[in-house]
Amino acid sequence: MAAIIDCGVPAAGTEREFDFFRPGQDRRCDKPITTIFFDLDNTLIPTRKGDAKACGKIADILHNEYDLPRDLATEVTITFLTSYRRCPDNPDIPLAQWRTQMWEDALPAGRKHLAPELYPRWVEYRTRYLAPSPEIISLLQTLRLQYLLGIVTNGPSASQWEKIDRLALGRYFDCILVSSDLPWAKPDRNIFYAACHYLGVRPEECAMIGDKLETDIQVSEWTQECSFGCLDM
C-alpha cells in the first residue's frame, strides 16, 4: 500500500505539469482499463449505515445498563451523531479526546461522566459495522489480480486514515489519497490526476467508482477522460 502524502505531487496550480491527454486532443486509444479508483465512504464501506447502527447500540447501552429513558438515550446518540458528522475530528487535539468530548456534550447533566466509557464501546461497534462486506472483499481480491487499485476520498485526514487503518484496507490498494493531505478535494480533477501521476497511468486507462455523482463522477474534464460507475449502498 502506498499513500500519497508528501510524495512529490505538484503543488496547487501546477496541474499542467502532468503529462496527460486533455479534452480536445486526439485521445483515440485502444488501451484497456488498467486502474480502478474507489471512493471510500458509502462505496467500499457502509459509513452512513454503520455510524447509525453503532449509535443505536450505544442508545441500547444507555437504556439497558444506565437506566436512561429510551427517548433520552436516542436523543443523546442523535445529538452526538449530528455533531460528529458536522466535525468528525479536530486537528488540534487527539481523535479520542475530541470524540469523548462530543459524547460528554451530548450526555445530560449528571451522566457526562459516562463519556470515557461510551467512547471505546462506540469505536468497537463502529469498526464492526463499517467493515466491508465479504462480497466487497472478494471483489477487491479478484480485481487486484488484474488491475491497479486506489482509493480517492474526501474528508479530514485523521478521521479517514483511522477508518482505513482499523479496517486494514491498505492491503488491497496501491494508492490511497485523502483530500486533507493534498491541495485538492473531489470533484477537483487534480486529485484524480495526482492519483494517476503517482501510479504512472493515464486517465483514459482508469475507472472511478463512487456513490455521489456530484463529487465522484462529475461532468468535467476528468469524466471525459475516464470510465466511471456509481454504487448505491
Automatic annotation (TrEMBL):
Q: What is this protein called?
A: AAEL002791-PB
Cofactor(s) in the UniProt record: Mg(2+)
Cited InterPro entries: HAD-like_hydrolase, HAD-like_sf, HAD-SF_hydro_IA, HAD_sf
Q: Which GO terms describe its biological process?
A: N-acetylneuraminate biosynthetic process
Q: PANTHER family attached here?
A: N-ACYLNEURAMINATE-9-PHOSPHATASE (PTHR46470)
Annotated GO molecular function terms are:
N-acylneuraminate-9-phosphatase activity
Annotated organism of origin: Aedes aegypti
Q: Which SUPFAM superfamilies match?
A: HAD-like (SSF56784)
Please indicate which superkingdom the organism of origin belongs to.
Answer: Eukaryota
UniProt keyword terms in alphabetical order: Hydrolase, Magnesium
Read off the NCBIfam families from this record.
HAD-SF-IA-v1
